[in-house]
Amino acid sequence: MNGPTAEGRKRGAAGKAGDGPAAEGRKLSRSFGWLAFLGTLLVIAGIVGLIYTGVATLTSMLLFGWLLLIGGLVALAHAIESRGTNYFWLGVVVAALNLAAGVVVIRHPEGTAEALTMFAALLFLTGGVFRLVGSVVVRGPQMGWTLLQGAFGLLLGLLVLFDWPHSSLYVLGVFFSLALLFDGLGLIAIGIGGRRIVSMVSDRLEGRGLDDREAGRGAERLDAPAPATDSPSKAPRDGQK
Q1: Which one of 1, 43, 126, 140 has the minimum C-beta count within 10 Å?
Q2: With contact defined as beta carbons under 8 Å apart, do 130 and 150 qualify?
Q3: For residues 177 and 44, is the Cβ–Cβ distance under 8 A?
Q4: Tens-of-pLDDT digits for all 241 residues of the chain?
Q5: Are 142 and 153 in contact (CB under 8 A)?
Q6: Is 225 exposed, middle or buried (0-12, 13-18, 19+ CB in 10 A)?
């Protein structure tokens, strides 16, 4: 009774050990599939935003305002928890500024978009000028690329600045939509690549499991006792040769 029971336990343990990697592989494959699905949604949102840049600009401003409000509430909660310390009033001031900025952005998204567009144009201008001057002064091995980047930044800043405030209707929306598009493409690439890697590893583990089972069956056949004969061999009698 002990022999077959122990053998059954060994086979059950081997089956569970074989099912463990397969189950984990299925879970990872589903997770990577959800990543690819989320990336697809982001790509669709980015394409729609590039088509309707005005709506994308207002949407990005509203999201920015709500993020400021949530950040202000979180900062206020941390300030209340740290009351009695030296950082209490600093936390209260930071929370109040975030809350006030969030309210202003949500109530006046168009004006906020104009201000941020002006700020972005000035950043492009200053960045392009510094790259151009730095590449000419330093004359490093990447001088050509630095000159090209500086000229592109300077040109982009001038275009945005000359078309301001009308440019505020589409500049931020284009940037927001491009960010969604590239993030979505990155998630899709990660999801598809991860599923391929998981499937390859699962196939190899299943192949090894089959080889181990075949080897175990061969060992069982070799270890099996020889069949007993029907009649025992008779010893020769004294008078027989």
Answers
A1: 1
A2: yes
A3: no
A4: 444 454 455 455 444 444 556 666 677 777 778 888 888 998 898 898 888 888 888 888 888 889 889 988 888 888 888 777 777 788 888 888 888 888 888 888 888 888 888 888 888 888 888 888 877 777 767 777 778 887 888 888 888 888 787 777 788 888 888 888 888 888 888 888 887 887 777 666 666 555 555 555 555 555 555 555 555 555 555 444 4
A5: no
A6: exposed
Output the six-digit token pair for 35.
């990543």
AA identity, residue 206? E
